[in-house]
User: Which sequence fits this backbone?
């Protein structure tokens, strides 16, 4: 029996998962099925409710006596960037939060070598006296150990005294990874695992609840994660005092472990899901947006999580370690993210009591009509437009992923995820072919030295929004295409911009067919939409005509479909218009056979979330059976997190995490990777970590070179199989 079937059977029978079960799930690449099981377990416990709270993080100081290898937050006294808030400043920050409706103040920070225990008591007391209605959650087990040693008291005595002045509960920080093989390396100066657990045991005995965490994605392996979660499960069996489990994704900036990348999105989601399945005595699993990023955190609500944390307002610890999700989200924005996950938002207090009672409703069973559509899709039957609309509105994300992946072409070695390393020039920025060629040469040289690979495609992007930009004529474009063919004979030359194609033909006084023939004669082999322009204002007839004219001239094309959703509020995406455009391209492919791929993107000025985007990818696969390649291009995936984390490489785009996950929802291609802005190697690491074989695509699929394989393998500690062959 395979691991998914075995775990499903145990869940149905109420049998607790073993360490071996959890380890096998980590080693499995069945993300959709693991997510489906976790979602089922979560909804049985919490129905469709997702919690959040209005809270304020106050990090009193980053001055710390410890020197943990993974920590980018701590500073020594007098070091640049060191700070320490006064108690008055902390009270003022709490007051700002209370004025915004906060019910919780969360206080953790460094171990200040000059602050005595009384100072910590005074900060709690001052906040509680000023705002008695606020719950104060403060001080990790590591901080409490420090305070006990400074005060020459037991930890229980410290907890009692802090409780007397207003401490309400403990956060879960400082747990990191319990196993000594890892703990002794990354934080040997912190309290050992047994002491961390005993500190929380003591707090629970005093009537205080606490959270618990696990820092993953650094040098630990899957077995270390399972060991960590088992110890937490055992303590929860004993005390029942944990509010929530919070997996913390490692942030890569300023650490001493040589880690320079964010966690894989695939691994983030699988960790959330396995936690839900393994930690059967926890009601609440938190998808912590501060460290996961809003994209993966929102998607985590489909993978067993039922809490998105809170408004936070000012969180510095992960931010200084390279966190790029910002330091605050508004109540209304959090509720939008939850609503667009087809869940019910519920504001809670620290102890998970609803501030306002939500409309829980009841779990809606799958309708007979939807079940029939899914059954027909399982047997590869052709889906009608009404069927697809029904799936878009009602099917679970995991059902869509399962149906879509079943239609992805696979070879005997397994699934592939291809990328296209591209050297891109925006032509309106240049006034001559010589200038554009000079830029391309520089891009090639950088790509070879930095990534050990040449771009496979030269992309000439004609899209422009600047009124002062140079407008290229068809003659100039043809001359540049010819020059590129001569200068880069191994590369394919592509032209980007559907609107620009119409403009080129019009300005030359030609029909589309004539312009396409001229471009083919110059040596153009590929045409695609420009990421810099939207095509929603073009009619389906106009878009189809452009592609078919190019196909008639022997030029392959890559189509694009855009999913739109209201920019404000929680409105549904415009599925009917989206599916109609996909259908148009499928009909084009039937007629002319010239489409290489169809890319899914989000329309500008609309609010499409990660879960909605993946639904669109899956629906595209189901609605375009004649188009082999469905692409989830990085440059066109909607994101909320900032592209660049503090101090991290700018090429680590947050869409990398989502794009690789899209391979489990019907995509088999991640589109053009602009080597001047993104790292093809980093993207291929995500592909491999998601359980797929990285490929380079231009006119044909190519194996990646040995040098690139070595680069990919360096970061594959947290992948189902650890190496690329």
Assistant:
């Amino acid at each position: 029996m395979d691991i998914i079937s075995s775990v499903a059977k145990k869940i149905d029978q109420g049998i607790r998962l073993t360490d071996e079960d959890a380890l096998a799930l980590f080693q499995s690449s069945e993300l959709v099925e693991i997510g489906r099981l976790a979602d089922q377990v979560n909804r049985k416990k919490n129905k469709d409710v997702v919690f959040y709270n209005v809270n304020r993080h106050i990090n009193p100081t980053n001055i710390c006596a410890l020197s943990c290898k993974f920590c980018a937050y701590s500073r020594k006294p007098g070091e640049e960037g060191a700070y320490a808030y006064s108690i008055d400043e902390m009270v003022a920050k709490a007051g700002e939060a209370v004025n915004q409706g906060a019910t919780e103040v969360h206080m953790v920070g460094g171990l200040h070598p000059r602050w005595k225990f009384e100072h910590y008591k005074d900060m709690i007391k001052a906040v509680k006296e000023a705002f008695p209605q606020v719950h104060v959650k403060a001080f990790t087990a590591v901080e409490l150990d420090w305070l006990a040693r400074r005060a020459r008291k037991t930890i229980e005595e410290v907890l009692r005294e802090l409780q007397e002045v207003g401490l309400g509960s403990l956060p879960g920080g400082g747990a990191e990874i319990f196993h000594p093989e890892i703990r002794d390396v990354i934080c040997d100066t912190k309290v050992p695992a047994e002491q961390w657990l005993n500190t929380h045991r003591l707090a629970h005995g005093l009537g205080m609840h606490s959270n618990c965490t696990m820092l993953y994605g650094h040098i630990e392996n899957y077995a270390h994660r399972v060991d960590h979660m088992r110890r937490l499960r055992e303590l929860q069996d004993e005390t029942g005092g944990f509010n929530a489990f919070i997996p913390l994704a490692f942030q890569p900036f300023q650490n001493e472990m040589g880690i320079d990348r964010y966690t894989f999105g695939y691994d983030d989601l699988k960790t959330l899901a396995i936690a839900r399945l393994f930690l059967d005595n926890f009601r609440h699993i938190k998808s912590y947006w501060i460290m996961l990023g809003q994209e993966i955190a929102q998607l985590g609500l489909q993978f067993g999580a039922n809490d998105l944390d809170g408004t936070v307002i000012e969180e510095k610890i992960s931010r200084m370690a390279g966190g790029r999700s910002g330091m605050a989200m508004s109540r209304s924005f959090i509720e939008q993210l939850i609503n667009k996950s087809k869940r019910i938002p519920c504001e809670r207090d620290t102890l998970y009591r609803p501030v306002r009672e939500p409309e829980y409703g009841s779990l809606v069973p799958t309708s007979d009509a939807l079940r029939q559509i899914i059954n027909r899709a399982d047997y590869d039957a052709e889906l009608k437009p009404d069927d697809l609309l029904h799936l878009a509105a009602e099917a679970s994300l995991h059902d869509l992923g399962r149906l879509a992946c079943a239609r992805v072409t696979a070879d005997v070695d397994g699934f592939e995820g291809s990328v296209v390393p591209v050297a891109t020039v925006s032509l309106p920025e240049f006034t001559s072919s010589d200038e554009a060629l000079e830029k391309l040469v520089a891009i090639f040289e950088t790509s070879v030295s930095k990534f050990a690979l040449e771009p496979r495609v030269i992309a000439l992007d004609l899209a422009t929004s600047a009124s002062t930009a140079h407008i290229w004529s068809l003659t100039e474009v043809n001359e540049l295409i010819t020059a590129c063919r001569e200068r880069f004979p191994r590369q394919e030359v592509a032209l980007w911009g559907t609107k620009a194609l119409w403009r080129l033909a019009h300005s030359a006084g030609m029909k589309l067919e004539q312009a396409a023939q001229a471009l083919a004669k110059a040596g153009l082999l590929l045409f695609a939409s420009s990421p810099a322009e939207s095509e929603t204002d073009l009619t389906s007839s106009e878009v189809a005509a452009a592609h078919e004219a190019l196909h008639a001239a022997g030029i392959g094309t890559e189509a694009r479909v855009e999913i739109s959703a209201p920019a404000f509020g929680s409105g549904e995406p415009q599925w009917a218009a989206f599916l109609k455009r996909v259908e148009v391209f499928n009909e084009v492919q039937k007629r002319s056979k010239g489409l290489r791929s169809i890319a899914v993107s989000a329309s500008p000025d609309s609010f499409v979330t990660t879960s909605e985007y993946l639904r669109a990818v899956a629906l595209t696969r189901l609605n375009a059976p004649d188009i082999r390649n469905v692409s989830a291009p990085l440059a066109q995936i909607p994101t909320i997190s900032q592209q660049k984390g503090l101090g991290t490489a700018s090429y680590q785009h947050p869409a990398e995490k989502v794009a690789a996950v899209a391979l489990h929802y019907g995509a088999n291609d991640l589109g053009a990777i602009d080597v001047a802005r993104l790292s093809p190697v980093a993207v291929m690491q995500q592909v491999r970590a998601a359980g797929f074989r990285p490929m380079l695509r231009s006119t044909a699929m190519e194996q990646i070179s040995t040098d690139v394989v070595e680069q990919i393998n360096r970061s594959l500690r947290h992948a189902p199989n650890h190496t690329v062959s």
Summary: The first helix runs from residue 3 to 13. Residues 243 and 692 are 36 Å apart (CA to CA). Confidence is low (pLDDT under 50) at residues 315-325.
